Amino acid sequence: MRIEDYALIGDMHTAALVARDGSVDWLCLPRFDSPACFAALLGEPGAGRWLLAPASGGPCSSRRYLDDTLVLESTWECDGGAVRILDFMPPRGQAPDVVRIVEGVRGRVGMRMELMLRFDYGRDEPWLRYEHGLFAAVAGPDAAWLRTPVPLCVDEDARRTTAEFTVGPGDRVPFVLTWQHSWLPRPDAIDAQESLAGAEGMWRDWISGCGYRGDDGAAVRGSLLTLKALTYAPTGGIVAAATTSLPEQIGGSRNWDYRYCWLRDASFTLQALMSAGYDAEARAWRDWLLRAVAGHPAALQIMYTVEGARRIPEWSVDWLPGYEGSSPVNVGNAASGQFQLDVYGETLDCLHLARQSGLAVVEEAWDLQRSIMDYLEGVWRRPDNGLWEMRGPRRQFVHSKILAWVAADRMVQAVEAFGLGGPVDRWRALRREIHDEVCAQGYDAGRGTFTQYYGSTGLDAALLLIPRLGFLPADDPRVAGTVDAIQRELVEDGFVLRYRPEHEGVDGLPGREGIFLACSFWLADALAMLGRRRPARDLFDRLLGLRNDVGLLSEEYDTARRRQIGNFPQAYSHVSVINTAAARAAP
């Protein structure tokens, strides 16, 4: 299956990917970063999946989310009839549930169900049993139960459970899969039809609070629902994506685990939530951030778990071949230990935006900000790994220095606008010093553009953020020169690369990658700020056209293969949809 052939369902603790052929190929339980019990996405069906589809097989004829919900409806037009399946995860109760309801539409359609649970990323084959109409699977710490009125057949040798049945018009056949820790009692059964009503009501109630009133409302609402689905409800943390190791290059090794929360996404995510009127979600995200970064600023990381934990060791799942042979399959992320200077600016910018937007002030937030700023004053000159988590040598990345300037600038603004206490004259001097250095050492006057790092001839799409961050106004000729240079040197088929990986061996990794979707949204924003509104609109429309049939975007796009690549769905891509639309709608 292509990455865009998947749809997302979730319960704001975890999420599953459902393919067009009716197979759930990815699900981690009980939360986003738990080991997968369905990992066929990164291997073969034997790595775990749950297929439910017409016995004749093949992809569905059409699918959609029921209006403004995350309830997926897939329809098959078959010889002799039509059938649809509703897939969803109800709001978390005693335990996580995945509900699938088969509905007969026309004629009579033979159906097939195949459940292959494989815990721990496909490694652990559970012990199966079927008693009194209830299927159970147990392996180590994991247990699962399948409830359905359809007779089941347990194949102990193949460690799978199957069923064959027929549906006619008006028939509704439910399947409910429930997970629990194996040492706890079996959770109470839920009613599939009642849970459907509950799921629809929850999503519609939530999206009814959307305050966005501009064009592209359907795209914005869809992206907001995706962002909500990627939120870990107990803490307010938002994962970058629901998956690990979907490749940035098909067949390559650029495969990373994105089931964590990145600080670099903080201010853009907060801006997206606030612009749509979701103050409670913005406050939860801000509070997650405060808890996660609490402690000594020297220990600040670029990413944390959904609970705010710091340890995210990286290891390879060597028994999985990877998506279309893209290996290794990685769990955890070693980039969590990198030194990335920009995260200090991202954190202070996010907290400043929260205060500026009227979120209730947390008393300890200013103390934390001052502590971070004190530390930043001593380290801003150091080379770092950059926002793209380069695994090559540390360098003096221009974007990193600009975010150090952002940190000083937001601290000055906090004193000036809100009367907070601090050494504002020292921060003003630092702000000026960083600005002067970046303009002197990070700008190539001969070419009329800022560069990726001091002394480099390469470019970086993050330079498109210069006017948005306030480092220079949009009418400064250096901004226009940088935008023009990026359009000449980083654009492929009308979309923007993050940078050229092959240039000067900057990232220390083999191969290359696709276009990073958020960067193309940044170009649309920069063009609009430069007054080039028609090209900005055209680019935004092209980006919206890359969404799959249910409105989802991955991290990147392969212009040669014309397909989505990278982890999916990507929060940063959907945050960009919201922010670019909101910027266009602003008076």
UniProtKB/TrEMBL annotation:
Residue span, Trehalase-like N-terminal domain: 2-178
Protein's UniProt keywords contain Hydrolase: yes
Protein's recorded name: Glycoside hydrolase family 15 protein
UniProtKB keywords: Hydrolase
Domain GH15-like: 219-581
Pfam families given in the database record: Glyco_hydro_15, TREH_N
GO molecular function terms listed in the Swiss-Prot or TrEMBL record: hydrolase activity
InterPro entries per UniProt: GH15-like, Trehalase-like_N
Keyword Hydrolase tagged: yes
